Amino acid sequence: MSDAEVAEVITVMRDLVPDVSAEAVAAIEERLPEMVRPHDPRYAHMLGKSVRWMIAQFVDLIEDDEVSLEPITEFFHEFGVWTAEEGLSPEAWHAAFRLGSGITIGRLAEAVQDQPGVTPAMIGQVAQKVSVYLDRMAAAMAAGHEDADARTAGDQLMRRQKLIEVLVSSSPNADEIWDLALQARWKLPQTAAAVALRRRDPGGERRAEIPANALAALHLSEPCLIVPDPDGPGQREALAAGLGDWIAAIGPTTGTNDLARSLSWARRALALAEEGFVPCEVPVIAADHIPLMQAVRDRDMTEHLVALRLAPLMTVRAQHRRRLAETLLICLECGFNASDVAKRLYLHAQTVRYRLRQLEELFGEPLQDPAHHLELNIALRYWLAVDPAP
């Protein structure tokens, strides 16, 4: 083509920019309603501006291959940020790009195909250039969307970390909790529980697989979680599955204004697990170990209680001492019902009755005195926890 013929084609294309832009915008608004919000004129303005500028800039690029695309790529990067902040999905504006590009290629090709010197091969080259050009704009927009998502995620993480700090504080403010939960996009539950955590291997790199609705504060020196509706179906199983590399202890279920207490219990139960008092292969339920937590809290007093109440047991040979202690603890829990004790220990009832007679010979009348049962229960739990099993 001669320079004059090229200039004529460019003029025809440039004259078409307003009409092609309007047709593309109308098609996008008709077929992609999520891109249109009649109550908010910003959407129509941004859509019209982006389409008009994209087509006009492409015509400039056809005229001069060296024209700078930096201004328009920056625009579409910011346009991507804007769409992310407005909640428009990448799928929506990808569809808009495809629709707009199809209309643009079709209309420009129709307009220039009868121009002197224009061949089908040239129209194909223009279509290919349109495709490459739009891919570049889409990439700029995607980068902006990702940047906005990253910023949003970072902001939300900080808000959630602030929220969890307020929730476990000694005197949480209800209004502040509501405001922070709204900002962090966390639905306030009716009930929740705190979970205290410690890595099994301090050098481990595997991240905890935390339920999506939980709040995580793994950044604290004493990491913890807040788990909504902890007694709901499958909640504890899911938590156990995701925390395999962590020692975890679950505090009691409370309202969101009492999570400091739940966390306090959880941390005390976690200490039991770390010191080997209770198994830690699965999350420890703090409420299951109240007597032991109390006993460990003042060991000097508890050890005095052990020496006082379990003295008869210490006269038995070591190989029999532990099984008698275990039998006595279950007896106390089952009200000395031999059948119930047998089921708990997987023993024959006659074996349990035989052990009971041995215990009665050792302890005498105090064994049947309810006034001594609480002290015996605490002493037995503590001794069984600290005394290594043979």
UniProtKB/TrEMBL annotation:
Superkingdom of the source species: Bacteria
Domain PucR C-terminal helix-turn-helix, first and last residues per copy: 324-381
A Pfam family the protein falls into: PucR-like_N
PucR-like N-terminal domain ranges (all copies): 7-168
Cross-referenced Gene3D superfamilies: PucR C-terminal helix-turn-helix domain
Protein name: Helix-turn-helix domain-containing protein
Species of origin: Actinocorallia longicatena
